[in-house]
Amino acid sequence: MGGRDATMVLLDENGIRCDGRKVDEPRRIMIKAGGLKNADGSAYIEFGDNKILVGVFGPRDVHPKHMSNTDTGILRVRYHMEPFSVGERKNPAPSRREIEISKVIKEALEPAVMLDKFPRTAVDVFIEVLQADGGTRCAALTAASVALADAGIPMRDMVAAIAAGKVADTVILDVNNEEDQAGQADMPIGYMPNLEKITLLQLDGVLTPEEYKKCVQVGVEGCKLVYDLQKKALQDKYFGNGAG
Ligand code: ADP
Description:
The chain is an alpha+beta fold. The protein contains four helices and ten strands.
């Protein structure tokens, strides 16, 4: 919810959004499992104009050793935006925003990953945002989940993610950058579809209690669509044409 642009038409009289989508229509999503030969697992996602690559390493020894836990493994996540990923060059140093997003993605993945199976070790998840267009944390979380599965890390469930939001007093699915900047609310949601549990829920903006419920409902339905594409990506790699 950055600077609001009063002149931008976010929803026209026919209920069509600024990029031509209907209110409940996600952007085009393409997920590919695998691709990085030096990683234990990897995934690439295009979520509208977001382009994100994820590499997973581990379970492996923890350095420094005192950070390891004798009872359980640990998950470490680094979310990083390339300087060229946005219109104006981004400073390559980690920003507060990147540190926060790394933390929320880690916490959203932890309930799904069976870290107790790997005491004393770490699983590292490296997220590289090559191109950003609103909703990178959801796209990154979705791809990270596929990369963890690709690495063979035992998981209770996948985590699928998408944002719901509000523009022109209307609840929408999958908030793009313009809608994030000029709209009324952005609610990223991460969801485990089989366990029916939400692992990420943030809200930037203001919603009525009814709108809040509708956003959660629309977001969870969106996550189920994303989950189908995660499964398809893994099926294509392991049972499909063998690519990756
Ligand atoms: P998310 O990408 O998860 O929606 P934000 O709401 O913080 O996270 O960011 C929204 C969008 O703003 C990003 O997807 C990106 O397109 C843009 N953005 C973020 N950081 C920068 C930056 N430093 N410079 C330009 N645009 C940025």
